[in-house]
Amino acid sequence: MRELVYTGFVSLDGVVDSPGGGPGEDHRSGGWVIKDVEFLPEAFSLKGEELEDTTALMFGRRSYEAFAPVWRDSDDHAAYRELPKYVLSTTLRDGALVDGWGPTTILRSADDVVELKKSEGGAIFIHGSAELARRLADAGLIDRYHLLVFPVLLGAGKSLFSRADKDKQMLNLRACEPYPNGVIKLIYDVVG
């Protein structure tokens, strides 16, 4: 069974919205990852470590449309170019896929994600895609979280975690590391 891993930057109050800021992001605190927290390369080492485990990427439609044209040509994301990509969307059409960014498959339902997880291969990482992560977590399909928690309370924005009335979900701490700039790396396995 392939693991589905959510990886992201998150504020202490659970917001994953607009961490890098930039065009098209209208969150009033957009850019919170780089604006107010001292950059320490070791605090971002998790991103490099993940590459060893990443065999495919998954996005929701909006994150795919934002990342694909930028990451395709980015030297910082060169390792992702040829990896298989999956986009969970009921509205994205094949003609909207970005050329030159490796094989991309559109999935239409959570059942398609279940079938993908049953296929041969390693871990599939979800970057961004807060709404997708919430839906997949509510369906019990997220296996692990790789989080860099930033020492900021944003008060508004898209939350990583659902507020749906559902059964308690336990997490098992796999790794934790604090950094002098206040960022904390947390890696949790989903129990059960």
Characterize the structure shown.
The chain has a domain at 4-60 and 115-190: Dihydrofolate Reductase, subunit A, CATH 3.40.430. It is 21% helix and 26% strand. The chain contains 5 helices and 8 strands, in the order βααβαββαβαβββ. The protein has an 8-stranded mixed sheet. α3 (61-71) links the parallel β2 (54-60) and β3 (85-88).
CATH topology of the domain at 4-60 and 115-190: Dihydrofolate Reductase, subunit A
Query: Could you give the distance between the termini?
Result: 14 Å
**Corresponding CATH architecture of the domain at 4-60 and 115-190:** 3-Layer(aba) Sandwich
Number of strands: 8
Tell me the CATH superfamily of the domain at 4-60 and 115-190.
Answer: Dihydrofolate Reductase, subunit A
Overall, the morphology is globular
Spatial order of the strands forming the largest sheet: 4-3-2-5-1-6-8-7
Low-confidence stretches: none
Contiguous helical run count:
5
Q: Largest beta sheet, briefly?
A: 8 strands, mixed
SSE order in H/E notation?
EHHEHEEHEHEEE
**Class from helix and strand fractions:** alpha/beta
The CATH class of the domain at 4-60 and 115-190, by name, is Alpha Beta
Helix content estimate: 10-25%
Strand residue percentage? 25-35%
- Indicate the mean pLDDT: 91
For the CA atoms, what is the radius of gyration? 16 Å
Summarize the structure.
With 192 residues, this protein is of the alpha/beta class. It is 21% helix and 26% strand.
